[in-house]
Specification:
Length: 420
């Protein structure tokens, strides 16, 4: 339970300009029992269907503890239905909740993080209001849920359990309290943010952004995911990369079987250290930094076998130092040397986006996706016009409000850069 903060001394009294934040420590209706039986799920679905207005939705995962991004708790709150805490581990199919909420707007914070996991449980939103995205479009300095709740309602929302292992069963009472509070005032926050969006003329921008998040396709599998091992960029030889690749694959398979986050089984830094040392035996491996401790000797033969496979590869089967070719442009820092004209276009285009960012008080990355801007500048249309710029940006996922706002100015900037 969150304890009230001690009274501030005279020297610590908040100034007249600072808002007074009231801690939000208990759900208004108490902590509900976890829904973990088909009968309780049916009752919950019926209550939600009979509720009024939007539904607040949140999901908790066990990132850093379990393999993958499975949802381990779903929280919902709707006027007239109260709060429900649903256990997807006991009830993998939550499609009945989705059916009960057909046509109802879901209010989430950072919806792109929760919607994929909810879809795996059979939950699909008819409409979305994302309070984090709304806060970004409004130019709020801090967009975490606690900060947005404080800004809009003057309430203090504790976040001390945000990174716990939500696969734990039974869930402790203070975790359930935290989970219930995450949806306690989300609809009220939504209403205030919606008013601000209307006031600032950004309601349609937000609608398009929310719909893009709702309809976003699943992320495609990564090519050569082992190349994302932290520190791999420091390696200079293909044989070292082969060791990283084999260790990553062995770790991933072991983590999947154990349903454990890969980094808890073998940290990235240990993989890179082994690639540098290239040990030829288990005792040599156990002397490498990162392979000590009581569990190291148990799994050492597994890791050494992976290293041995990499060491036995013929040279023509070693991975290249560079990753697979893609249609993505090179890093912008290389543009001045490789393609000065593209660098000039990028400088001009970035200046346009930055000026609009200041004018409308929207972060640059929310005004236009950085990747779409880079691709436009690296390979512009053969004939640069507002229409051709709009077409190219839209093909890369830009929303209509973004192209309506920026296309003409970007076309002018690209044309001017070509003449300079």
């Amino acid at each position: 339970m969150n304890e009230p903060a001690p009274a501030a001394s005279a020297a610590e009294e908040p100034s007249a300009d600072e808002p007074i934040i009231t801690p939000l420590t208990e759900p208004a209706d108490g902590i509900p029992a976890v829904v973990d039986t088909p009968e309780a799920l049916a009752r919950t679905a019926a209550a939600l269907a009979a509720g009024i207005g939007p539904v607040a939705v949140d999901a908790e995962r066990a990132s850093g503890y379990r393999y993958g991004q499975q949802t381990y708790l779903v929280q919902l709150r709707r006027e007239g239905a109260g709060t429900a805490l649903v256990d997807p581990a006991a009830l993998p199919d939550l499609s009945s909740l989705s059916e009960a909420l057909d046509g109802v707007e879901w209010v989430l914070h950072a919806a792109s993080q929760d919607l994929p996991g909810l879809a795996e449980q059979g939950m699909h939103a008819s409409a979305v209001f994302d309070t984090e995205l709304a806060a970004r479009l409004l130019g709020m300095e801090r967009v975490g849920l606690a900060a947005v709740v404080a800004d809009t309602l003057g309430l203090g929302l504790a976040k001390e359990h945000s990174a716990v292992d939500w696969s734990t069963r039974p869930l402790p009472e203070d975790w359930l309290r935290y989970a219930a509070l995450d949806v306690e005032v989300l609809v009220e926050v939504r209403d205030i943010l919606a008013e601000r969006l209307e006031r600032d003329g950004k309601a349609e921008w937000a609608r398009q952004e929310f719909e893009a998040v709702r309809l976003a396709p699943p992320a495609p599998p990564r090519v050569d995911p082992w190349r994302r091992v932290s520190g791999v960029h420091t390696l200079r030889r293909p044989r070292q990369l082969a060791i990283v690749r084999e260790l990553w694959a062995a770790r991933d398979e072991n983590a999947r079987k154990r349903d454990t986050a890969p980094g808890r089984i073998l940290p990235d830094r240990s993989i890179v250290a082994a690639a540098v040392a290239a040990p030829r035996s288990v005792p040599a491996l156990l002397a490498v930094p990162g392979f000590t401790g009581r569990y190291a000797s148990r799994r050492a033969p597994l890791w050494q076998a992976a290293i041995d496979r990499a060491m036995a590869l013929p040279d023509d089967e070693l991975p290249p130092m560079r990753g697979p070719r893609t249609d993505a442009p090179p890093p912008p820092r290389a543009w001045p040397d490789r393609e000065p004209a593209a660098a000039a276009r990028l400088d001009a285009a970035k200046a346009v986006v930055e000026s609009f960012s200041k004018k409308y008080n929207v972060p640059v990355e929310n005004l236009l996706q950085p990747d779409a801007l880079r691709r436009l500048c690296w390979t512009p249309p053969s004939k640069v016009t507002a229409g051709s710029v709009t077409e190219q940006l839209a093909a890369r996922g830009a929303r209509q409000w973004q192209t309506d706002l920026l296309a003409d100015a970007l076309a002018t900037a690209l044309t001017s850069a070509a003449k300079a």
